[in-house]
Amino acid sequence: MWQRLVGTDDSLAGLVLRVTLGLVIFPHGAQKLLGWFGGHGLAATVDAFARMGIPKALALMVIAGESAGPILLLTGFLTRFCAFSIGLIMTGAVVLVHYGNGFFMNWTGQQAGEGFEFHLLAIGIALALTIRGGGYASVDLLLTREV
Question: Among 13, 76, 98, 122, which one is least packed by beta carbons within 10 Å?
Answer without folding.
Answer: 13
